[in-house]
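Subject: sequence -> structure tokens, single chain

Hey, anyone have a minute? Need the predicted structure for the following. Not urgent.
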Amino acid sequence: MIGFTPAEFNQVREAIAAAHLFMQALGPVLKQRHTALNKDQRNLLQFAPEAVAQGFNTIALITHRENRDPNAQEEESPTKLTDIDTEAMRDELENVSALVLPDLVYQMVCALGELPMFHHTLTFEPLTTHRAAMLMAWSWEGGRRYGLQQALAILDTTTTEFKTGTEAVLTAALNSALDLPSPEPASDAGKVIPFEYKTAEQVEAEEGIAKPFDVPEDLDNTQAHKPN
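Reply:
Had a minute. Here:
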């Protein structure tokens, strides 16, 4: 974990917010001059807005977490798919309220003018709090269903890619030749090498060693065992 002093965090937050607003304001102008930009500038124009927007969203999440009441109820994971975690919903609504989404706003304007129930709710009577909340609820539920469809599409794509990769590996393993070691040359059976050992008599005859307890013939038997 990297620590920030309050002053350092405020400075980083203001810098990212300024970069986010800068990209929102000048992004369309730069896109209009796309042909006049070189390759590096075009790559930067394609990469920078998304990176700045993600950084701005992260800073907004951290700011909300730090400023939140410590005694507030913590977010709880819903136990059913149809359950709504109201704390998480409010947090997300607060986070996205700081975003500038021109493309999405345009699509919502089209939806309010073209979809019957949205158009009727907006124009039939003066827009009250209840009717505005109804529009928000419809939009939230539509976004939730769209998110689930995206998650299923990602899961399906990942599963398909994993299955395809596994099948390719198995096919390559089945079709490839076995990598066996080369056969070793046949070895001859062991042979017994005869080795002649000399007898004690032959050793004594060659080295002149007297037999144990042999007494010379010229020695007097009476003198044989006298002590010195």
